[in-house]
TrEMBL record:
<feature type="transmembrane region" description="Helical">
    <location>
        <begin position="29"/>
        <end position="51"/>
    </location>
</feature>
<dbReference type="Pfam" id="PF00462">
    <property type="entry name" value="Glutaredoxin"/>
</dbReference>
<keyword id="KW-0812">Transmembrane</keyword>
<dbReference type="InterPro" id="IPR002109">
    <property type="entry name" value="Glutaredoxin"/>
</dbReference>
<feature type="domain" description="Glutaredoxin">
    <location>
        <begin position="72"/>
        <end position="128"/>
    </location>
</feature>
<dbReference type="InterPro" id="IPR036249">
    <property type="entry name" value="Thioredoxin-like_sf"/>
</dbReference>
<keyword id="KW-0472">Membrane</keyword>
<keyword id="KW-1133">Transmembrane helix</keyword>
<protein>
    <recommendedName>
        <fullName>Glutaredoxin domain-containing protein</fullName>
    </recommendedName>
</protein>
C-alpha cells in the first residue's frame, strides 16, 4: 500500500493526539477521551481500511467481463468515495474496487473516462464509465443478493 493513502489518517491521529495532550494537561480527561475518539473515527473513515480489498484495474476488468459486476475506481480520502462506500453498506463487497493511487492502470482508465481528470468515484458498468453516480443506481447494477 502506498504511503500517500495513509497521510490524511496519520495526520488526523497526530493532530488529535496533540489536542488530547493539551486537554489532559488542562485537567479534562473526559473531554480528551471524547476528542481522541472523534479523531480516530475520522482517521478510520478516511483510511483505505473501510473499503473492500482493492485489485488491479486489469484484473477488475477481466472479472467484470466474466460476471458483469461493476468496477469502482476510488482513492483514499475522497469524500464522495467514502459516501458511496458507506451508503452501499454490505453490498459494497459485490463490486470490484480499484484504488487509483495504487494502480497506474486504474488511474489511466479514470483519466481516459474523465477528460484527463482523476475524478472519483468512477463506476464502470458493462464497459461504460459513470462519474460519481447515485448510490441507488449503483445498487441497481448489482446482482440480486443471495
Amino acid at each position: 500500500m502506498t504511503t500517500r493513502a495513509w497521510i490524511l489518517p496519520v495526520l488526523l491521529v497526530l493532530c488529535g493526539s496533540i489536542a488530547v495532550t493539551g486537554l489532559t494537561l488542562e485537567g479534562s480527561p473526559g473531554a480528551a477521551a471524547a476528542f481522541l475518539l472523534v479523531f480516530v473515527l475520522l482517521a478510520g473513515v478516511n483510511s483505505p481500511l473501510i473499503f473492500p480489498r482493492s485489485i488491479g484495474a486489469l484484473e477488475a476488468q477481466r472479472r467484470s467481463a466474466a460476471d458483469g459486476r461493476p468496477i469502482v475506481f476510488w482513492r483514499p480520502g475522497c469524500k464522495f468515495c467514502i459516501r458511496l462506500r458507506i451508503r452501499l453498506g454490505r453490498r459494497a463487497g459485490q463490486l470490484y474496487w480499484v484504488d487509483i493511487w495504487r494502480d497506474p492502470a486504474g488511474a489511466a482508465a479514470v483519466r481516459a473516462a474523465n477528460d484527463g481528470n482523476e475524478t472519483v468515484p468512477t463506476v464502470v458498468v458493462a464497459g461504460r464509465p459513470h462519474t460519481n453516480p447515485d448510490r441507488g443506481w449503483v445498487r441497481e447494477q448489482l446482482p440480486p443478493s443471495a
